[in-house]
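The aim of this short unit is practical: by the end, you should be able to scan a pair of folded records and say something sensible about each. We start with the first protein, listed as its amino acid sequence and then its C-alpha cells.
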Amino acid sequence: MPNKTLVWTGSEWRDGRLNVFEHQDQKQAAAYIFDGSQWRASRPTPVEFPPVIGGVSASFTAVETATLALPAGVLLGDVVVSVCASYGTATPTPERRRTRRAVTTGASVETEHDPLRTGYVMTLDPTKLHLKVSTFEWTPDKGSAVTWRVSGAKDTNAVVMNIIYRNADTSRLPADPLVDYTTAMGVDRHQLQAGTDHQSLYVAVAISHDLTSARWPAGFTNGIDAFGTFGDMQVHMLAAHTVGAPSSPGVLQLDATVPELGVALITVPGRANPDGHGVWILGDSAASVLGTSTYLE
C-alpha cells in the first residue's frame, strides 16, 4: 500500500495529497516510495515462490566482527537471509547498528535499531562450531551490509553468507527463521528433512579435511558455497533452495566422509496458496499421491 500523506488543518488530519494536471484533466497525485533504485507507487506484490535475486559469501579470520555486503541490486521489500558460522566459545550475534537522523531543530540524533530476526543457534559438538540465521525485510535505512559479532577474542574464524529473495510476503516473516536442523557424524550423505510451503532454503555446514563439493537433490537451484579455515580443518557452508513439500526432497551427497555435518532448514514465506492445498512435486511418491496429497482440478 502506498504511503498516505496527511496535513493538519488545526482541528483534524486531512488527505494531504495534491492535485496535478494531466493533459486537460486534474487528478489526485499518488504518493510514491523509494525502493533503493527508483520511486514507485506501491510495495512489491508477494508471489507464492519468492525467487532468489543473488547471494554472496566470504570467510573471516582473526576478527571480532564480520561484515559482508549485500548482493548488488537489493530493493525495498526484499528479504535478506544472513547466515553466520563461527568457531569459538561465544555464539555469533547480529551487530546492533546505529544511525543518525536529523530533527526539526537541525540537530542530529543518534538512534539504535536492530532490524534482524535471529534464529536459534545450531552447534556442532565437540568442535563448538556455531551456526546462526537472521532474516529481515530490507529498507534503504538498513544499509548495504550485515555485520555479525562473532567473538570477543581475536582468534575467531567465521563464514558469512547473505542471500536475497524478492516478492516474499514480509508480513509473514517468522520471529524465528530456523524451522528445523539436523546433525550427523562420520557421513558422506544426509537425508534432508521435510520442507515447508513456499521456498525452503537448506544450509549445510560440514567440517572436513577432504570435502571439495556436494550434490543437492534434483530440483534444487541457486547453490552457493563458502569455505573457511577452522584450525587444521576446513568448514564448508553449502546452501541451495527448492519449493517446499511435506516430505524429504532427497539426499545431500558429499564427495567425502565428514566428521561433522549440520543441516538447517529456513522457510521464505510467499503469497498464501488460495486453494489451501500443498505443493505438488512432480515425481515425488510421498508428496504427490493423487487423492491424498495431490488434487487435480
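Turning to the second protein, read its sequence before its C-alpha cells, just as you did above.
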Amino acid sequence: MNEPGSHYSNPYPHQQWGPSTPQPWGGGQYPGGYGVPGAYGAAPFTPQPKPPLRHVALTRTFAACTMLAWLLIGVFGFLTFATVTANDGGDSTFNGWAHWTSQGEGLPLMGGSHAVVFPGVLLPLLILFPTLLSSILILCNVARRGFSAVNVVFGVIGAGVATVAVVDPSAVVGTFDNDSSQYVDAHYTFSAGPSAILNVVLGVVVVLLGIGGIIWGGKAPVPAAYAPPAYTPTGHMPPSV
C-alpha cells in the first residue's frame, strides 16, 4: 500500500498514520474533556440535588393538632350532647356516647312506640378518621400538601355533619316506625349541648389546619439547573455572547 506510485501511498513516509501509542480516555482524544470524569478543564457532571422541604416544624405542628382534634371529639363526647325537654315538664340529657347523664327517664314512649339514641360523636369520628392517618404521614414528611388537602375535604364533611346535629339534635334519635317518629316529635323538644357544638368547632379547626398545611407545605425554590459547557472540536470553551 505504501509502495511509491501507489494510489494509497503515504506521501509523508516519515510520519505514521494514526497515533503511535494509545491515548488515555479523556484529554488526549477529547480535548478539553468536558463532562468526562478525570479529564482536565471540567469537573464531572453531578445530578441536580432535590430542593429541601420548607416549614417542616410548622406542618408537623398542624398534623399533630389535627390528631389532637380527632381525639378531643371523643373526649368531649362525655359532655352533654343534647337536652331533651318533655312537653309536659321535666328535662333529661344524654352525652355524645348516648348515655343519659341526669336523672329522669330517657324518652318514655307510650303506646308501643320505640326509639333509641345513637352516639352523637360516632359519625364525626368515623368521617374524620382519614385525617388521623394522613396526619401521621404528614409527620413523616410524605406528600404534605396532598394529605393536607385530604384533611380539608374530610374536615368540611365532618363539620357539616356535626352542624346538622346542632341544628336538629333529634337526628341522633332513631325511631323504627312512623308512629314512634310522630310521638317523639309531638312530645319532646331537643336542644344541642356543648358536645355537639364542640364537634363543629373541632371540624372547622381541622379544615383550617389543613389549609395551613397546603400553604406552608411546599418545597424551597428549585435553583437553576446545571448544564455542562458545550463541547467544541478544538477543545476550547465557546465564545460568550
